[in-house]
Specification:
Strand order of the largest sheet: 1-4-2-3
Largest sheet: 4 strands, mixed
Shape: globular
Structural class: alpha+beta
Number of helices: 5
Order of helices and strands: HEHEHHEHE
Radius of gyration: 16 Å
Helix content: 40-55%
Distance between the termini: 32 Å
Strand content: 15-25%
Length: about 110
């Protein structure tokens, strides 16, 4: 298994990461300032064309940051799921670190 493939497969099991499968989740992650560690595609021109039509504000980021991999490797990054155009790893934010000091107990609901 390649290091990239291992990294993605570990991220599926690691609660510190989110695997973003497709342009739509990556678009939202970027718009909310997510920490994207890596993004991969098998067809950068197709990805950029889709982004230009659906989210033109993303095109400069995609041009600079997306790594091109073979179609075979791209298919294996998603553990067999059908993913279109792009797959990325984002570090999940730790919201408890963003809370102001509390005088008593606090409850944080996630998901």
């Amino acid at each position: 298994m390649t290091p990239l493939l291992e990294r993605f497969h570990q991220a599926y099991r690691d609660p510190q990461f989110a695997v973003l499968e497709g342009l739509h989740p990556l678009k939202h992650a970027l718009r909310f300032d997510a920490a994207i560690e890596i993004a991969c595609t098998a067809d950068k021109p197709e990805l950029l064309g889709a982004a230009a039509a659906l989210a033109p504000d993303m095109v400069p980021w995609l041009e600079r940051h997306v790594t091109v991999v073979s179609a075979d490797q791209f298919g294996r990054l998603a553990r067999g799921a059908a993913v279109e155009q792009v797959i990325a790893l984002a570090r999940r934010p730790v919201y408890a670190d963003r809370l102001p000091p509390m005088p008593g107990p606090a409850v944080l609901l996630e998901q």
